Fold this sequence. Notes:
Elements: E1 2-3, E2 12-15, E3 18-28, E4 36-43, E5 49-55, E6 59-62, E7 65-76, E8 79-84, E9 90-94, E10 109-115, E11 121-125, E12 129-137, E13 150-155, E14 160-164, E15 172-176, E16 182-185
Antiparallel strand pairs: 1-6, 2-3, 2-6, 3-4, 4-5, 7-8, 7-10, 8-9, 10-11, 12-13, 12-15, 13-14, 15-16
Amino acid sequence: MANTSDIRKGLCIRYNNDIYKIVEFLHVKPGKGPAFVRTKLKSITTGKVLDNTFSAGHKIEDVRVETRSYQYLYSEGSTYHFMNTDDYNQISLQESALDSPELLKEGEVVTILFNAEDNLPLSVEMPAHVILEVTQTEPGVRGNTATNATKPATVETGARVNVPLFINEGDKIKIDTESGAYMERAKE
């Protein structure tokens, strides 16, 4: 058993007869009254996100997880296929287990969390950022740079990202997987 001081991003807990992963948390210590922890929990089984507040010192049941590296192979509809990089065993997961499947490129190495008790896959953790090639975007117009103007672009995985005007088709860009936002042009 853990308590609210052990809460951190990525921790898996058992709550309301389901397993949830903590997506966001904030320890709040108001001037008047007891401290509490505001959390955003994502259900591992359904993918539903809910907000919950735990009072300070509240006991939470954490789930022991193991992490393993897997390489993304391909997808069939909403089923994604991965291969273990150590023993080459393959597993299939539903799209709901992935945080940002639209940014997943074939061959990308991800970390999959497994429940240590029953060895079932819980969720897929993407790398912090991915480098993708821009396949389609409008050309930037010279003189439209009074502010940080952006334009929509489609990357090789089919995801749409807002990019600065100087990005052209064929450029490789770095994208933050958590927010899905453009970070910078990738260095060749």
